[in-house]
Write a structure and sequence with these properties.
By secondary structure, this protein is of the alpha/beta class. Helix content is 49%, strand content 18%.
């Protein structure tokens, strides 16, 4: 079974137990049952600061992924996937303009981020198509 650490610094309340259940389903779907990851919910100010420090982008974003298998850990065989940081206020705003509920938006951002943690990217158009297809496949499996 996966090990998942979830914490929140956000003023927005969120069902941490329910999101943990969905994270377990996502990891199981991806055959990552023995992996470990952490998820932190934050507000806009904190994610903006993390985005500025780590990506050199001084703006609010919805989710940040910090893969464990980069840099000095790139050859590690240990199944620590990395860390996910989600701005709940940004997810809430995005849910208001998408077809997803607030909870579904957070799950979608989690899927997106987990895919980043295992090596998916969307910098090139072809890679973006592959990643979007995988995101949709997982999301619709969870919510159909």
């Amino acid at each position: 079974m996966a090990t998942i650490y979830i914490s929140t610094n956000s003023i927005i309340e969120f069902d941490l137990e329910l999101i943990e259940n969905y994270l377990e389903k996502i990891l199981k779907f991806l055959n990552l049952n023995n992996s470990e990851l952490s998820l932190l919910f934050v507000d806009d100010e904190e994610i903006k600061e993390l985005n500025r420090v780590y990506r050199k982008k001084d703006k609010v974003t919805d989710v940040l992924s910090f893969p464990q298998n980069e840099g000095i850990f790139s050859s590690s065989n240990y199944e620590i996937l990395g860390d996910i940081v989600i701005s709940l206020p940004q997810a809430e705003r995005q849910s208001e303009i998408s077809e997803r509920s607030f909870f579904e938006e957070v799950v979608f951002l989690s899927i997106h981020s987990i895919l980043h943690l295992i090596g998916y990217d969307h910098m090139e158009e072809e890679d973006e198509k592959i990643m979007q297809k995988r995101e949709d496949e997982i999301f619709y499996t969870l919510f159909e």
